[in-house]
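Dear colleagues,

For the upcoming journal club I promised to circulate an example of a predicted protein-ligand complex. I picked one with zinc ion because it came up in last month's discussion. The inputs are reproduced below in full, followed by the predicted structure.
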Amino acid sequence: MKVGDRLVRFCEAWESSAILRPNYHEVVVESLLVETMIENAYERSCIEKANKLPANSIAQICWIKPIEKRRSDQRYAHAIFSMNSREAANKLILHQAIVGSKALRARKNKSDPHRCAKCNVFGYIAEQCKVEHDSCARCAGRHRTSSCTAPDDQLQCANCKTPGHGAASRDCPHFIRKLKKRVQWEPERAYELFVTRDPETWVRDDAPLKEDFNQGWRQEVANSYNTWTIVKRGNGQG
Ligand SMILES: [Zn+2]
Ligand SMILES: [Zn+2]
Ligand SMILES: [Zn+2]
């Protein structure tokens, strides 16, 4: 019996309201026209055809930024495509995403570690923050970032204390260390593509192909292949 079949039986026996869905493989597609009808199933099937993907490869498409936060004259926006298989996700990343006859850049969705909007510490969000004072993400002063008046040449990082960049900078050595740590518990992060049995997908962002790091987990991913998540029926995620 396949793992998926076994899990389906488990769900049935455990609770009839539980269903099984594959884990999605998220791809960021850049600069979609804001008029694209991403919630429309027919539109999604057209995108699948244009990209020569099997039917139902795209589970859903969401805008990254809430629509209400757009500028009034904004014409393009980034979206997250939740793909049902690793191969379909890789196809978009390798060959770009064709949407409305345009080829758009597509990349694996690698979310950054959470940084508290109040105190700039990584690992939690402002709602959970216990620090009393605000710390500015531009100049490290004790005020909200939104009320910062420091000129651009007086940035200072609240985390590594170095002048020249703010706490939101992707070049901050403290941030880069946090990202590296994340790779340790989420090894697939270091890869540009979703790892499959195809060795082409085994190229790391930061090392040549020959160096065979993490072979153990990679074998595991390749063997378990597309993994599954148990979800409750009718919670809007299924
Ligand atoms: Zn905080
Ligand atoms: Zn400031
Ligand atoms: Zn810094």
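Two points we might discuss: Residues 116 and 125 are 4 Å apart (CA to CA). Helices lie at 3-14, 41-50, 86-95, 173-185, 215-224.

See you all on Thursday,
B. R.
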